């Protein structure tokens, strides 16, 4: 049995030496040191084959052999792991002197850029930017703007009602009404209010059930239509579309302004001569405006005999479409990266 243990030790050490991988090494460990391995079998058979005097001697030898094999396995495992680590490091070497791979970055959405450009323009004219809730009351969305219940002009803005008195706002004018109501006629107000609005409309190339509006309001003593045309709208058109653009005002109707006008800008393609872009008119409609209705001022706490004002409203989508030649409003909302990437530097 002593000779058998020595032979097993020699065999095991040789196989450990010849092993080239951790798997082969594990196979040797199981074969010689496992529960069914030959060394374990020798220990199990000592009771019936050895005398009382031989058992401690063979037992000690078996434990020595087991320890030598286990130690050899551990050394070989460490050697193989070191070789594999060296190989991995060699294969995954990073040349820190190479230029880094550029990480593509996004840019502001075209609509965001347009809104910020318009905000900067009007801030430069002395307007402040205000915001309000998108879920609005019927009072601020309609009644405070001279649109009482049953008014036929409500049909022009087919609305998303949540309850009888709560709806998704159809324009950003409620922010103007809220601001004037908060001030209660104690001082002038000069503001713009950008934001999302909602109307029950069929989505197509020029319409959307959700879109963006920017509305402006200026209320003070002695405010006139000439201040609106020359001081604001003409400056806006020239700064947004170019110094060569002309504007014209056409009579229109809005319940919260009187008189009301539509503003057109001269066509940049034909310069007013008439083409397919402007439908042969030489002009393109861009926004609505007018003098604030005395009833709206009165409901907000302003004395219409002392204060007057003007208001205007525009759609950034339409302005972006005209300025950059976008032919379908749905491009702004479908998140097509090919479209958006064109305007990162816009």
Describe the structure.
Helix content is 41%, strand content 19%. With 346 residues, it is an alpha+beta fold. The protein folds into two domains: 2-91; 111-343, Bira Bifunctional Protein, Domain 2 (BirA Bifunctional Protein, domain 2). Helix 6 (110-123) crosses helix 9 (225-241). The longest helix is centred in the first third of the chain and has 38 residues, at 54-91. The model has no long low-confidence stretch (mean pLDDT 86). It is found in: Cytoplasm. Tetramer of two alpha and two beta subunits. Its EC number is 6.1.1.20.
What is the topology?
Blueprint: H1 2-18, H2 22-33, H3 38-44, H4 46-49, H5 54-91, H6 110-123, E1 128-129, E2 135-137, H7 138-141, E3 166-168, H8 173-183, E4 189-198, E5 210-221, H9 225-241, E6 247-254, E7 257-266, E8 283-292, H10 294-299, E9 307-314, H11 316-324, H12 337-340
Parallel strand pairs: 1-4
Antiparallel strand pairs: 2-3, 4-5, 5-9, 6-7, 7-8, 8-9
Helix pairs in contact: 1-2, 1-5, 2-5, 6-9, 6-11
**What is the strand content?**
15-25%
Uncertain spans: none
Using the CA coordinates, give the radius of gyration.
42 Å
The class by helix and strand makeup works out as alpha+beta
Question: Given the C-alpha coordinates, what overall shape results?
Answer: elongated
As laid out across the biggest beta sheet, the strand order is 1-4-5-9-8-7-6
CATH architecture of the largest domain: 2-Layer Sandwich
Quote the average pLDDT. 86
What is the H/E order?
HHHHHHEEHEHEEHEEEHEHH
Largest sheet: 7 strands, mixed
End-to-end gap:
90 Å
Whole-number total of structural domains: 2
CATH superfamily of the largest domain: Bira Bifunctional Protein, Domain 2
């Amino acid at each position: 049995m002593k000779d058998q243990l020595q032979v097993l030790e020699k065999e095991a050490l040789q196989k450990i030496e010849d092993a080239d991988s951790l798997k082969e090494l594990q196979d040797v460990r199981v074969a010689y040191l496992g529960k069914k391995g030959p060394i374990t079998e020798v220990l199990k058979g000592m009771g019936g084959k050895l005398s009382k005097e031989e058992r401690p001697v063979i037992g000690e030898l078996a434990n020595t052999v087991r320890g030598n094999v286990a130690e050899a396995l551990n050394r070989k495992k460490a050697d193989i792991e070191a070789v594999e680590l060296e190989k991995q490091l060699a294969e995954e070497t990073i040349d820190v002197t190479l230029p880094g791979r550029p990480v593509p970055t996004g840019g502001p959405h075209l609509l965001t850029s347009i809104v910020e450009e318009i905000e900067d323009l009007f801030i430069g004219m002395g307007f402040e930017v205000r915001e309000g809730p998108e879920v609005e009351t019927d009072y601020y969305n309609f009644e405070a703007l001279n649109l009482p219940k049953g008014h036929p002009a409500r049909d022009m803005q087919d609305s998303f009602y949540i309850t009888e008195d709560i709806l998704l706002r159809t324009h950003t004018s409620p922010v103007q009404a809220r601001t004037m109501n908060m001030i209660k006629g104690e001082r002038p107000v000069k503001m713009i209010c950008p934001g999302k609005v909602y109307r029950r409309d069929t989505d197509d190339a020029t319409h959307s059930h959700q879109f963006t509006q920017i509305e402006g309001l200026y209320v003070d003593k002695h405010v006139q239509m000439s201040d609106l045309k020359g001081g604001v709208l003409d400056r806006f058109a020239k700064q947004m579309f170019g110094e060569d653009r002309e504007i014209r005002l056409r009579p229109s109707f809005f319940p919260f302004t009187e008189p009301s006008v539509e503003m057109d800008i001269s066509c940049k393609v034909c310069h007013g001569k008439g083409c397919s872009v402007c439908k042969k008119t030489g002009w393109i409609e861009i926004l609505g405006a007018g003098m604030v209705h005395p009833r709206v001022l009165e409901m907000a706490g302003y004395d219409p005999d002392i204060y007057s004002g003007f208001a205007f409203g525009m759609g950034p989508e339409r302005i972006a479409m005209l300025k950059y030649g976008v032919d379908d409003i749905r491009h702004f909302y479908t998140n097509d990266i090919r479209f958006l990437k064109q305007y990162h530097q816009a």
